[in-house]
Amino acid sequence: MRAEDIIIRPILTEKAYDGIASMKYTFKVAKNANKTEIKLAIEQLFDVKVERVNTMLVYGKLKRMGKHEGRTSTYKKAIVQLKASSKPIEFFNSLA
């Protein structure tokens, strides 16, 4: 699997913004990707050094449209901690 297929998009929430100062970045990743693949993909795409990767499954919320109900899609989220000696990810510089 290519790095572009593993990292789907960054997650830009208030909680994710708080982590940017301590070099923690949050991404939506492919469900079948493991921590090692995520680490290698981040290092390849952004040219940084990753210290640790924490992953979690975010289950879809229950949504209703009138009498019909269903769930939004379940996805996998990864919080990536960069090494102190690493440079920050440039994409997030203007956000912090």
What does this protein structure show overall?
This protein has helices spanning 3-6, 14-20, 35-46; strands at residues 7-10, 24-29, 50-58, 62-65, 68-71, 75-82. The protein has 96 residues and is of the alpha+beta class. Strand 4 (62-65) and strand 5 (68-71) form a beta hairpin. The mean pLDDT is 93.
Strand order of the largest sheet: 1-2-6-3
Q: Summarize the helix and strand pattern as letters.
A: HEHEHEEEE
Global mean pLDDT: 93
Stretches where pLDDT is under 50 for at least 5 consecutive residues are none
**Count of alpha and pi helical runs:** 3
Question: How much of the polypeptide forms β-strand, as a percent range?
Answer: 35-45%
Give the terminus-to-terminus CA distance. 31 Å
* Alpha carbon gyration radius: 15 Å
Helix/strand class = alpha+beta
Number of strands: 6
* Helix proportion range: 10-25%
Instruction: Outline the biggest β-sheet.
Output: 4 strands, antiparallel
Shape label = globular
How would you concisely characterize the structure shown here?
The chain is an alpha+beta fold. It contains three helices and six strands. 24% of the residues lie in helices and 36% in strands.
Give the topology.
Blueprint: H1 3-6, E1 7-10, H2 14-20, E2 24-29, H3 35-46, E3 50-58, E4 62-65, E5 68-71, E6 75-82
Antiparallel strand pairs: 1-2, 2-6, 3-6, 4-5
